Amino acid sequence: xxxxxxxxxxxxxxxxxxxxxxxxxxxxxxxxxxxxxxxxxxxxxxxxxxxxxxxxxxxxxxxxxxxxxxxxxxxxxxxxxxxxxxxxxxxxxxxxxxxxxxxxxxxxxxxx
Amino acid sequence: xxxxxxxxxxxxxxxxxxxxxxxxxxxxxxxxxxxxxxxxxxxxxxxxxxxxxxxxxxxxxxxxxxxxxxxxxxxxxxxxxxxxxxxxxxxxxxxxxxxxxxxxxxxxxxxxxxx
Lengths: 112, 115
What we know:
The structure holds 2 protein chains of 2 kinds. By secondary structure, chain A is an all-beta fold. In chain A, 0% of the residues lie in helices and 55% in strands.
C-alpha cells in the first residue's frame, strides 16, 4: 500500500519569507512524486514532478522540491513567498500505477 | 486545445433528485477519473476508467454511477442525491503509457449543493 502525508493543513508566511510545505510518503516500489497547486475556485495544475532523473526538481513559479529517499520526503520550497502563491498545495504519489494517491492538502496563506 | 471540460459549474439539487455531471477531454487520454473534494478530506477518488467500456470503483463509489462509451467522455451520475453528496467534483485525465509518471489534467470543477 502507498500513502502520502502532508504535515500541516495550513501554513502561514509573510510575503518575502521562505515557503516550506512538507510531504512524506510510503511506497513499496520506487515512487513517482508530484506537487499540484489549486488556486481559489480552480482545478489542480502541476507544479513539478519527480521521476528519478534528478533528486532536486524545479517547477513553475520558482518552486522546487527535493526527493530524499532516506527520509521518504519530498518537501516543496520557495525562497521568497509572493501574495499570488496563496493556494492549496497537494502532494501526490504514483507507485508504478497511473492512479495517484493524494495527500490531504496544505493551504498556504501569505500575509503582506 | 480545451483540455478537460466539466459542466455544469454549479448545481443545486433537492434530496432524491438525479443528475449527471459531464466531463469531456480532447487529449485522447485513456485514463479518466472523478474526484470529490471536501474540506479537510483532500481529494477522494470516486470512479475511474482506463478506456472505453472499462470502469472501476475508487475509494468512495457509493451513490454514483459512471460509464465510458467513448474515449472523450466520462459522465458521473447521481441517481438519488443526498446532502452528503454536497461537494466540489473534479474530473481528471491522463495517458497511461508511463506507468505512474503521467500527469493528471484536471477540469475546473463542478460545485454541487444538495438541499
